[in-house]
Write a structure and sequence with these properties.
- This protein has a five-stranded antiparallel beta sheet, with helices on both faces.
- The chain starts with a helix and ends with a helix.
- The protein is built from six helices and five strands, in the order H-E-H-E-H-E-H-E-E-H-H.
- Helix 1 crosses helix 3 and helix 4 packs across helix 5.
- The protein is elongated.
- The chain folds into two domains: 117 residues, Ribosomal protein L10, N-terminal RNA-binding domain (Alpha-Beta Plaits, 2-Layer Sandwich); 45 residues.
- The protein is α+β, with helices and mostly antiparallel strands.
């Protein structure tokens, strides 16, 4: 269990710690499904084991949040787990974000919310592809524009000659 938690702490882009006291099984399943949809996971582990697993890890600051009934949400994408956790906390008052870590950077509640507002990996890739494709479409538009202008001028001249 400790080794498995250690791998989670090593390989995750972001880990968010939250209290989940009072959540029903259905609500936890909903949280797990939302995390799974973005490539993340949810893990409930004994705080003592998680603290042992955190020893020597870059995100060792998470140990401060491990009190009471805690749940770990994590993802390789440095934004996905924070987005889902933040959205779920807004929908469910029994899910209370305590903080998290992004590599060596410790995050408080506001830090998790700030990370949640950042664009995800897929959104960044889409915007980069859009920026790369934009010059080509602008060039095609510029090349095609004079031809269409000439065609409309010729059509106007033809209409005037016919009249």
């Amino acid at each position: 269990m400790v080794d498995e938690l250690g791998q989670i702490f090593d390989s995750s882009g972001v880990v968010v710690v939250a209290h989940y006291e009072g959540l029903t099984v259905a609500q936890m399943q909903d949280l797990r499904a939302r995390m799974r949809d973005v490539g993340g996971s949810v893990r409930v582990a004994k705080n003592k084991l998680a603290k042992i697993a955190l020893e020597g890890k870059p995100c060792a600051s998470l140990a401060d949040f491990l009190t009471g009934m805690t749940v770990l949400t994590y993802s390789e994408d440095p934004v996905a787990a924070a987005k889902v956790a933040d959205a779920y906390a807004k929908d469910n008052e029994k899910f209370v974000i305590l903080g998290g870590a992004m590599g060596e950077t410790a995050l408080d509640v506001d830090g998790v919310k700030a990370v949640a507002k950042m664009p995800s990996r897929e959104e960044l890739i889409a915007s980069i592809v859009g920026c790369i494709g934009a010059p080509a479409s602008n060039i095609a538009g510029a090349i095609g524009a004079p031809a269409s202008n000439i065609a409309s001028i010729l059509s106007t001249i033809e209409d005037k000659a016919a009249a």
